[in-house]
Design a protein that fits this description.
Structural class: mainly alpha
Pfam family, one: GlcNAc_2-epim
Number of domains: 1
EC number: 5.1.3.11
Largest sheet: 3 strands, antiparallel
Shape: globular
Helix content: 55-70%
GO biological process, one term: carbohydrate metabolic process
CATH topology: Glycosyltransferase
Family: Belongs to the cellobiose 2-epimerase family.
Order of helices and strands: HEHHEEEHHEEEHHEEEEHHEEEHHEH
CATH class: Mainly Alpha
GO molecular function: cellobiose epimerase activity
């Protein structure tokens, strides 16, 4: 069996895993009493029904079910239960997560749907747009699209300065420090991560609407990535910045770079501009090459390199994004057959080590380089959701499994 045949097999395996693993698991996390989805399942598979419900978690779950439904329709296998799950998530976003007084989406809610952390973060606004745009596509509900554009204008009006997107705000949108999206001992005024996911959200909003204002902002973000975030000397993105986009730490985030590579290529495809395709592909092919050469060890991807020290642990989302990123790299430049081979190998690592085989579980949060689970990391928490692994499955099915 050659690699192209193996790629189709991988797509079929991911379809099975999506339908019989990821989707049923997250359906069981649905809270029919207070709305949304439960926010915590421990490593020992103990569900905490009174845990905080992250609004990012619920946006991503809503996005996931909306896209799973849209894919099921495209496959000629429309599963209305997926649309019902997306609607359940949407109602929770609309009625509980979005602040009706000051606008925007909260950071988190208590288990009963009342506000827990009223911080307004640009990153969080973006993921709600991502969910609402996809739910609109799945359902045709124009109210969801209206809410998406309200958040789009809120980001552009309240979450920007003269150089780009700011990060964290109080409930009434006064700037505050950015602990939530800062790591590695620094406090960042701007981050690559927030910029990337605003880009991702706007790409989805443009895809389902064709709106010219969104298109303009998408091009502006691409210019900012090229001019201020991408480091052509080190062939990587910088991660944490001061207000003026000066990098404040020597950090190489392998997972974000391979994720960025395919998301930028997706963005220029939706944009439909040959100028931006050429400009951004010059960057994305370098990012893909660097990650393959520096972070990939033949079976999986290291996490990051902080001040020259590599974290060799394997994070669930980094492995998922690597599969999509390597497949995208191969599709963009088919002569690089090694990228497809790399994606196949990472999928084998995921199947063997990252997917938790225990009844009632999903993926481990973290495993060692050798594939041993790191005990204590939860299976569900505010950041651990079906966004990365579910999206991996759907992307590979669309790219390699449709009409095959």
């Amino acid at each position: 069996m050659d690699n192209r045949e193996k790629a189709v097999q991988m797509a079929n395996e991911m379809k099975d895993h999506l339908q019989n693993g990821i989707i049923p698991f997250w359906k069981k996390l649905r809270d029919d009493e207070f709305g949304g989805y439960y926010g915590w399942l421990s490593y020992d598979l103990e569900l905490d029904k009174k845990a905080v419900k992250g609004c990012i978690l619920n946006s991503r779950i809503t996005w996931f079910f909306a896209n799973a439904y849209t894919l099921s329709k495209a496959l000629g296998e429309a599963d209305e239960s997926l649309l019902a799950e997306a609607e359940h998530g949407y109602e929770f976003l609309k009625n509980a997560c979005i602040d009706k007084e000051f606008g925007g989406i909260y950071w988190s809610l208590k288990y009963d749907g009342t506000p827990e952390d009223t911080t307004k973060h640009t990153y969080n606004q973006a993921f709600c747009i991502y969910a609402l745009a996809s739910y609109y596509e799945a359902s045709g509900d124009s109210e969801a699209l209206d809410l998406a554009f309200q958040l789009f204008h809120l980001i552009e009006d309240k979450c920007t300065d003269d150089l780009g997107y700011m990060e964290a705000f109080t409930r009434d949108f006064k700037p505050e420090s950015n602990e939530k999206l800062s790591e590695n001992g620094v406090l960042a005024d701007k981050t690559m991560n927030t910029l990337l996911h605003v880009f991702e959200a706007y790409t989805e909003l443009l895809r389902v609407t064709g709106n010219e204002e969104v298109k303009e902002r998408l091009m502006w973000i691409m210019d900012t990535v090229a001019d201020k975030v991408y480091n052509p000397v080190l062939k990587r993105q910088e991660v944490f910045f001061d207000r003026e986009y000066h990098s404040i730490i020597d950090l190489y985030s392998y997972g974000h770079d391979i994720e960025t590579a395919w998301l930028l290529d997706r963005g220029v495809s939706v944009l439909g501009s040959s100028e931006y395709r050429d400009k951004m592909h010059a960057i994305t092919k370098v990012l893909t090459r660097q990650i393959y050469d520096i972070a990939f060890d033949g079976h999986s991807l290291s996490n990051e390199c902080d001040k020259g020290k590599v974290d060799t642990n394997r994070v669930w989302w980094v492995q998922a994004e690597t599969v999509v990123g390597f497949v995208n790299g191969w599709q963009q430049d088919p002569e690089h057959e090694e990228y497809l081979e790399g994606a196949l190998l990472v999928w084998e690592f995921i199947k063997e080590h990252v997917i938790d085989k225990r009844e009632g579980s999903e993926w481990f949060w973290l495993v060692t380089q050798e594939g041993k689970p790191v005990v204590g990391k939860p299976i569900v928490e505010p950041w651990k959701c079906p966004y990365h692994n579910g999206r991996m499955c759907m992307e590979i099915i669309r790219r390699l499994g449709m009409n095959k």
